[in-house]
Amino acid sequence: MTDILTAPRSAAPAPARSFNPVYSGLPTTIFEVMSGLARTHEAINLGQGFPDDPGPADVRAKAAEAVVEGWNQYPPMMGLPELRRAVADHYRHWQGLSLDPDSEVMITSGATEALAGALFALIEPGDEVVLFQPLYDAYLPLVQRAGGIARLVRLEPPSWRITAEKLEKVFSPRTKLVLFNNPQNPTGIVHSDAEMQLLAEFCVRFDAFAVCDEVWEHIVFDGRRHRPLMALPGMRERTVKIGSAGKIFGMTGWKVGMVCAAPPIMKVLAKAHQFLTFTTPPNLQSAVAYGLGKEDAYFEGMRADLQRARDRLAGGLSALGFDVLPSAGTYFLSVDLAALDPKLDDEAFCLDLVKTHGVAAIPVSAFYAEDAVRSVVRFCFAKRDATLDGALERLSGALHNYR
Asked: Is 204 exposed, middle or buried, given 0-12, 13-18 or 19+ CB atoms closer than 10 A?
């Protein structure tokens, strides 16, 4: 009898293997491209959005203490009870929301997992999903993987505003949900109360869910206070609110997401989470629970420091001749090249910046799925003064050929 391990193999060629086209067709991300070029050219990297600062020492110490002295086995799938209570208390204090920590709060392994779980749980094949572009690069692949059909709203500089005319073109009886990022990456805008009210009216009118990416909720400037879409009339029972401890504390490697939704929605979201990551490191959850209870002075001081960095970079870029667009939140501000030369292409300009001037930035056209605005370049200002000043010094001759 021939052993299966020694039997001759068939000479027939193996059939070509196919892959999921949503992912196999994706190009290398612009972040990977620009970061690689930054390393090659020893550039100052103002492309990727993470701070130079390591994060609050007391929160990091709590994580270290919890991993050494605490529980390191599976925590509850929905999150540590202490963290879920802290999330509810935090949002009650800062945003006036009344949430039941037992039935309306869940902890995930980062906001991107929370987004994926929400989209997978709520979208059925063929459902239409409203997206605003420029958009975070994970949105469209996740919507497509869930079987959704994207209906894209194109926002343009300098205001990037949502209008009734734009919404009328994309909402329909087939609309299942809208994915709304506020404050918005990459533009740095904070949508107005009027825009949010308009969006809420459309969601109610078409009976659509709203999945709200609010990871930048604490990173708002000039005296602003974040207003969640969930708080608007008609939205409490149809909104999924998603936050990020990594963004709140400036430690982007801490993948701890916070999800809030009414109980009927949360029951389904929890099933999706269960079969994605199931749970999140307990020591990080303990540290985040501690951090969310910090005094208001921490959060106000964090915003003030970032606003000062924003103003430092914006002032320096303006002095060099760049047309700086307003930034009301996030770690980012943008410049519009159209005032210099309407034919300037943002991607070509960024490639020249990193190769010739040693500064990495991101072309905002990379955040569009179609019909891209090709004149806007994004910089990250969540950096030390020396980093920002060094970048400005290198950029001093960047516009010489365009004046």
From this structure: middle
Residue type, 318: S
Query: Hey, what domains does the chain have and what are their CATH numbers?
Result: 21-55+297-398 (3.90.1150.10), 73-295 (3.40.640.10)
Q: Which residue has the tokens 């708080």?
A: 231
State the Cα–Cα distance between residues 323 and 399, nearest whole angstrom. Answer: 11
How confident is the model over 150-205, as pLDDT tens digits? 999 999 999 999 999 999 999 999 999 999 999 999 999 999 999 999 999 999 99
Using the Cα atoms of residue 40, residue 46, residue 47 and residue 52 in order, give the sign of their dihedral. positive
Q: Residues 6 or more apart from 308 whose CB is under 8 A from it?
A: none
Asked if residues 188 and 330 have their Cβ atoms less than 8 Å apart, the reply is: yes
Identify which of 239, 229, 285 has the alpha carbon closest to the alpha carbon of residue 266: 239
Q: Which of 94, 129, 112 is nearest to 259 (CA)?
A: 112
State the distance between the two ends of the chain, measured CA to CA, in whole angstroms. 83
Q: What is the pLDDT of residue 5?
A: 44
- In this structure, what token pair is assigned to residue 22? 């949503």
Phi and psi, residue 220, nearest 5°? -130, 150
Instruction: Give the model's confidence band at 4: pLDDT under 50 very low, under 70 low, under 90 confident, else very high.
Output: very low
CA 135 to chain centre: 9
- State the maximum Cα–Cα separation within the chain, in Å, rounded to a whole number: 84
6-65 per-position pLDDT tens digit: 445 555 666 678 899 999 888 888 888 888 999 999 999 999 888 999 999 999 999 999
Model's pTM, two decimal places? Answer: 0.93
- Give Cα 281 distance to the centre of its chain: 21
- Number of alpha carbons in the 13 Å side-chain half-sphere of residue 69: 8
